[in-house]
Specification:
The chain is mainly alpha-helical. The chain has 3 domains: 3-52, no CATH class; 60-139; 164-255, Intergrase catalytic core (hpI Integrase, Chain A, Orthogonal Bundle), CATH 1.10.443.10. It is built from 10 helices and 6 strands, in the order βββαααααααααβββα. The chain has helices at 31-46, 52-55, 60-73, 79-93, 103-115, 120-139, 164-173, 179-188, 192-196, 229-240; strands at residues 3-7, 10-17, 20-25, 203-204, 209-212, 223-226. The strands form 2 sheets. Strands 1-2-3 form a 3-stranded antiparallel β-sheet, covered by helices on one side. A 3-stranded antiparallel β-sheet has the order 4-5-6, with no helix packed on it. A hairpin with a 4-residue loop joins strand 4 and strand 5. Helix 3 (60-73) packs across helix 6 and helix 4 crosses helix 6. It is elongated, with a radius of gyration of 23 Å. The termini are far apart. The model has no long low-confidence stretch (mean pLDDT 83).
């Protein structure tokens, strides 16, 4: 059981987790605030989570170092782009502790970059870098949760490499099960290997978004597609065909 005690005018709590004691300030003169904090910490520990005070010691700077180190270790080609993104993010997040990196702060960052006249695609690359940092932190037990990171719409659904009439003629001629694959390829310009490798983890069906994370595309940069109504229909058809239970097919194109 944890305890509550005073240091000067401030209430502190003491609790145990993973075989060691933790001491943490409630930063309040009110005992009820300390009681709620203690209850929260003990609840986390009972669920097998690291105590929140641990995550509060981890800063953006540490996550950024880990992120760039991961790029260097894995010899990713876009290390320069990653460093540029980190330098931009530092202007708003340098010195921030993990619990302080919240959606509201991220939205303020987006607003600042938009006011500077920066393109949506560039801002999305920076947001993808931030998401990657936090995701790596989760794997390293430095981050307990990744906040919602809104992505901006990009005008990147484009025509393919031949005329629209030729595409329509081709789509009529090919077998039914290939039509969705060809339609997505034509509208996005993605490589066949990228489309074939798409899993449902890359797809946000609620918002109509398909996303490749940095390192998954051939050029190592992330990529986001906002689906039009036709492509939403294609993905819905594939979703309906995915199976159930142990027979669920992880790849979007499994039935193509």
């Amino acid at each position: 059981m944890g305890t509550i005690y005073k240091r000067g005018q401030t209430y502190w709590i003491k609790y145990y987790g993973h075989g060691k004691p933790y001491f943490e300030s409630s930063r309040s003169k009110l005992k009820m605030v300390a009681r709620e904090l203690l209850k929260q910490r003990e609840g986390d520990i009972s669920q097998g989570k690291m105590p929140g005070v641990y995550f509060e010691k981890v800063t953006f700077d540490e996550l950024a170092e880990d992120f760039l180190r991961d790029y260097k270790i894995n010899k990713k080609k876009s290390i320069t782009r990653a460093e540029i993104s980190v330098n931009q993010l530092k202007k708003d997040f340098e010195g921030y502790r993990v619990p302080q990196i919240k959606t509201a702060k991220i939205e303020a960052y987006i607003e600042r970059r938009l006011n500077e006249g920066i393109k949506n695609s560039t801002i999305n690359r920076e947001l993808a870098a931030l998401k990657r940092m936090l995701s790596l932190g989760v794997k390293q037990t430095k981050v307990d949760r990744v906040p919602y990171i809104p992505m901006l719409k990009e005008n990147n659904i484009r025509k393919g490499f031949f005329e629209h009439g030729d595409f329509l003629a081709l789509r009529v001629a090919i077998p039914e099960h290939l039509k969705g694959f060809i339609t997505f390829a034509y509208k996005t310009g993605w490589r066949s290997s990228e489309i074939a490798g798409l899993t449902w983890n890359h797809v946000d069906r609620d918002n109509g978004i398909v996303r490749l994370e940095p390192g998954e595309a051939k050029n190592d940069e992330g990529r986001t597609v906002y689906l039009d109504d036709e492509l939403k229909g294609v993905f819905q058809t594939q979703w309906d065909r995915r199976g159930s239970g142990k027979k669920v097919l992880p790849y979007v194109a499994n039935n193509i």
